[in-house]
Design a protein that fits this description.
Blueprint: E1 2-10, E2 13-21, E3 31-39, H1 42-49, E4 65-73, E5 83-87, E6 102-105, E7 110-112, H2 119-141, E8 150-153, H3 159-170, E9 174-178, H4 185-191, E10 195-197, E11 214-219, H5 223-231, E12 233-241, H6 255-259, E13 263-266, H7 274-287, H8 293-296, E14 297-299, H9 305-313, E15 320-324
Length: 330
């Protein structure tokens, strides 16, 4: 038996509780992992609170990523004792996830722990950091380089935004961080942002084209924010979009695309092919300052994760949340 968060649905609706789970209840898979650390992401918070239609089957253990040690394997790629990381693949949505002491998954969903990261550091980065790296790679593939000008990061105090700011700054970009929490200015400048701006002027309908300012952007918000960001991107610039915290609608026009040649690059971290995942983790090992991980993260116990989910939805938490499940595993 091991502890885990279990989301269930009954006549009274959806509920999440911390409970004891037996290993025989785990879902199908060819690799079983003792989970050392997991995280609490925005998607996990939506699942736990029921604020979004994230969970596709019940009961469900949330947790879209985890890092741990293989305890049993029928997959030739992995042996008992291997240190592994999982991000996405519908885990925590349609397949039991990482906010429990054990997880059983398909081996092709896993990647080996990337040196020099520890299991905890891998989750300090987590899906949010890995997604941020995919966004940076998308900008690079579309010709966005430091000499082109300022890069905007929306939702900058959140998990994806925080890591994106740190990565872009280390790569030499002039980073402008957008946040609705002005009290986080010192934190964001510590990550490398050169300027902090508010969301004012971005959350309401804007003009099809605005003054050219951004060489590129990483957007986690969507909605009117993304539309207004696109309107201000320079000729041949690009925006990497990976989130929808501000809504799924995109109330824009074709003007940025056909008059300025702007590229909107969608970033899907959930079903991302294995080779692209491995490249993202290799890049994180070289491009993310490990000294910033402590500043980027805070720990919340498994017992406290349900309460923290509500705080995350309310925008009361910055950066990354690491959940130590079996921290003694290292």
């Amino acid at each position: 038996m091991f502890k885990g968060i279990l989301i269930e649905k009954g006549d009274a609706g959806q509920s999440a509780t911390l409970t004891e789970i037996g290993e025989d209840a785990l879902m199908e898979g060819d690799v079983t992992v003792d989970v050392a650390f997991s995280t609490l992401n925005y998607k996990d918070a939506l699942a736990i609170t029921g604020k979004g239609p994230i969970v596709r089957r019940f009961p469900m253990v949330p947790g879209i990523d985890f890092a741990g040690i293989v305890s049993a394997s029928d997959n030739p790629e992995y042996a008992v004792g291997d240190r592994v990381v999982l991000n996405g693949w519908g885990v925590g949505e349609g397949h039991w996830g990482g906010l429990a002491g054990k997880a059983r998954v398909r081996g092709d969903w896993l990647v080996p722990l990337q040196a020099p990261f520890s299991l905890r550091e891998a989750m300090a980065i987590g899906t949010a950091g890995y997604t941020a790296m995919l966004c940076v790679i998308a900008l690079e593939k579309n010709g966005v380089t430091p000499d082109k000008g300022e890069i905007l990061v929306t939702g900058a105090a959140g998990g994806v935004g925080s890591v994106a700011v740190a990565l872009l700054a280390k790569l030499g970009f002039q980073v402008v961080a957008m946040t609705g929490r002005p009290e986080e200015a010192t934190y964001l400048k510590g990550l490398g942002a050169q300027e902090i701006i508010g969301r004012e002027g971005f959350t309401s309908p804007g003009r099809p084209l605005a003054k050219e300012r951004w060489a590129g952007a990483v957007d986690v918000v969507g909605g009117h924010v993304l539309a207004n960001v696109l309107a201000g991107v320079k000729r041949s610039g690009a925006v990497a979009a990976c989130g929808l915290a501000g809504g799924m609608d995109l109330p824009t026009t074709v003007a940025p695309f056909i008059l300025r040649g702007v590229t909107l690059a969608g970033v899907d971290s959930v079903m991302c092919p294995r080779e692209e995942r491995l490249e993202a983790w290799r890049r994180l090992a070289s491009d993310l300052d490990p000294g910033l991980l402590a500043e980027l993260t805070q720990e919340v116990s498994l017992d406290g994760a349900i309460e923290a989910a509500g705080e995350l939805i309310a925008g009361q938490i910055r950066g990354r949340i690491v959940v130590p499940v079996n921290p003694e595993l290292g």
